[in-house]
Amino acid sequence: MKFTHLPVIFIALTLLSLNVNAQVTTIPEQAKESFFKQYPDAKNVKWENNVVNVNVRFEQDSSIMNAEYSNKGIWKNTLKDWSYDKLPEDVKEGYNKSKFTGREVTDVKMLYLPGYVIQYRLKVEKSGLEKKYLFFSTEGRLMRSSVTL
Fold first, then answer.
1. How far is CA 28 from the centre of its chain?
2. Which conformational region is residue 129 in: left (phi greater than 0), alpha (psi within -120 to 50 degrees), or beta?
3. Given this model, what pLDDT does residue 149 score?
4. Per the structure, how many domains does the chain have?
5. DSSP E strands: which ranges in 6-116?
6. Domain with 110 in it: what CATH number?
């Protein structure tokens, strides 16, 4: 008799957890307002709220972009799909002079930051195991690196 109550309890807990998830994923109005002011021509907008930040994937001028905002609507950065061939020569030269030269470049993004700062993010891999993001200034200076998955 006791075992017949288990499925009912399980279903109730599942429905309750779905309700909780729906509340966490709402998009703050401040983030929406900031985004549409900054990117009024955005198309195919997809929102994601990961509690700490709001990420917005969208298309603009035939480019795929990803903007990040705080939950209070403060813009943090925007990534734009890019290619190695389109990098400024200074950035290519900076990469070739860095200690990471020779690694395979698997992804390139243009990074827009507050204060009209532009950087280029290169994802590099060494033998498929060690993966890093390299951040270069427009002048080709390696600003920082970070480990990635």
1. 18
2. alpha
3. 83
4. 1
5. 43-49, 53-60, 63-70, 75-82, 104-113
6. 3.10.450.360
**Residue 67 has which token pair?**
């903007």
Q: Which structural domain range is residue 92 located in? A: 2-147
- Say if residues 71 and 28 touch (Cβ distance below 8 Å): yes
The letter for the amino acid at 47 is W
| HSE (side-chain half, CA atoms, 13 Å) at 20 | 6
d(CA 27, CA 128): 36
**Pick from 33, 25, 18, 69: nearest CA to 50:** 25
- Does pTM top 0.90 for this prediction? no
pLDDT value at 2 more than 80: no
Per-state percent for the chain, helix, strand, coil, to nearest 5: 30, 45, 25
| pLDDT at position 11 | 53
pLDDT at 80: 98
DSSP SS3 for 26: coil
Any idea which residue has 């925007």 for tokens?
78
**Confidence bin at 20 (pLDDT 50/70/90):** very low
Length of the chain: 149
Instruction: Specify whether the CB–CB gap between 125 and 101 falls below 8 A.
Output: no
